[in-house]
Batch of 2 targets.
Target 1
Amino acid sequence: MTLPSFRFGDLPMLSRAGYKEFAYDLGKRVGLSNRADPELGEGYATVCTSQAGRELWERGFLRGYAAVLRDLGLPGGYAESSARKALTSLARLGGAAASYQLQDLFHQGEHVGRLCLGKSADGRNGFVHDVGVEKKHQGRGHGRVLLQLAENHAASAGNTDMALTVFRKNTRATNLYRAAGFSRTSIHLMRQLLRAS
């Protein structure tokens, strides 16, 4: 189930009933007037991801999404089919075959990360589908630059808000998003049901 922000007070009751938090929707107000620095910074450059890079990202998306669902206790086959549905749904947003955009981030000529962004299902908000910094480049501020790129893109597209979803176990990403000014707009919960014997 999804608990919107105005119902966060119900969380203790739902926890006692066996519901566990597994993901959060986060949001942030963006706009041209809110951009502190529209430039990404010295030494940074972005390019659209190549077709080979897109295929690589999609394989990683499927593996990662399914792994998170398996960690939540969902059966392997269900986790994998859910991951495929999520990717198909992502490609359908906006009605285009590949409506999400992939951008590669380079710093001083070296590939450091990739951003997947698009719009929410209703088309009103910018949406960050994935922020990925290569392991050897983590902890150097590249994630903040990728988020700045996402905000710039959303603002220039006329969006006033930006949203994303993060799994609860991904504390590194959650800390990055909170530091960038995102706050919770809803909480996703689940409860394991016992099968009748």
Target 2
Amino acid sequence: MRTIDIGTISGDMTIHLPHGFGGTFDIRLKQRRSETTLPLQQSLGLTVQMGNWEKESGNSEEVRTITATGKVGDGRDHIIVRSVAGSLKLVQD
């Protein structure tokens, strides 16, 4: 069992998962109101929830938290992803 913890303040990420990968996902991303597309692309069947739009302290633009959780395959490995700005694309080979 492995824990993989990935985070970024700013920047887009693409994670390539090998065929047959099994893991549980804990993803938390921020989306700004001015961004017109969801910052998460995935076809793994993860449960995606969108929080309410809120103003962050020191920032005039509203943001919301996007979370995605779920299990793929045997769920053996644990994948944690955090991002303040940018998008995440999950691709399984």
